[in-house]
């Protein structure tokens, strides 16, 4: 049994959560434009107040030029519907529950904002833990997400590993 942790006695460095800056092309969209675009994006549904408008292009995500170049090399032409709506919300520091079909781009929808957050953190020091953790319900999904993550990690000079039941650490 792990001992109880009193988080009030532990110093946690503040960290930035909101990275999203809406570009003029998106800002100019009226509520009617946004509603029509969401219908065009496979009729995506949102809940919550003040949800960001969906993006249309990768350059509107706010990720760095290295990530944009990787997306180009991997032939990701434009964001999928889940990516178009989830990325601005996650990059704004909001909680998101994204429900979409297998193969719809959910993994990239959370990995791109995660990379942006990771790259904004100070360098790790001896004894520091991980900067980001992705929890999955199955080993297979963990392996698939790691594979997708590594396509970017090697160029971003970050490390990604997968730990699941039965694996050697």
Automatic annotation (TrEMBL):
Give one GO molecular function term. hydrolase activity
Q: What is its EC number?
A: 3.6.4.13
Q: Any idea where the Helicase ATP-binding domain is?
A: 87-169
| Enzyme class, spelled out | hydrolase
User: Which keywords does the record carry?
Assistant: ATP-binding, Helicase, Hydrolase, Nucleotide-binding
In terms of Pfam families, this protein maps to: DEAD
Which PROSITE patterns does the entry mention? HELICASE_ATP_BIND_1, Q_MOTIF
Intervals of motif Q motif: 56-84
Ranges for domain DEAD-box RNA helicase Q come to: 56-84
Q: What is the name attached to this protein's record?
A: RNA helicase
User: Which species expresses this protein natively?
Assistant: Henneguya salminicola (Myxosporean)
């Amino acid at each position: 049994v792990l001992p109880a942790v009193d988080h009030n006695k532990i110093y946690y460095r503040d960290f930035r959560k909101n990275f999203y800056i809406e570009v003029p092309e998106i800002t100019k969209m009226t509520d009617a434009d946004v509603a029509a675009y969401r219908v065009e994006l496979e009729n995506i549904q949102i809940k919550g107040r003040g949800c960001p408008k969906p993006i249309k292009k990768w350059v509107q995500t706010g990720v760095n030029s290295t990530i944009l170049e990787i997306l180009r090399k991997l032939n990701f032409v434009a964001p999928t519907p889940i990516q178009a709506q989830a990325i601005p919300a996650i990059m704004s520091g909001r909680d998101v529950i994204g429900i979409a079909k297998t193969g719809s781009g959910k993994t990239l929808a959370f990995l791109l904002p995660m990379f942006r957050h990771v790259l904004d953190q100070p360098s790790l020091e001896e004894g520091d833990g991980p900067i980001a953790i992705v929890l999955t319900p199955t080993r297979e999904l963990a392996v698939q997400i790691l594979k997708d993550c590594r396509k970017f990690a090697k160029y971003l000079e970050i490390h990604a590993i997968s730990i699941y039941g039965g694996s050697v650490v």
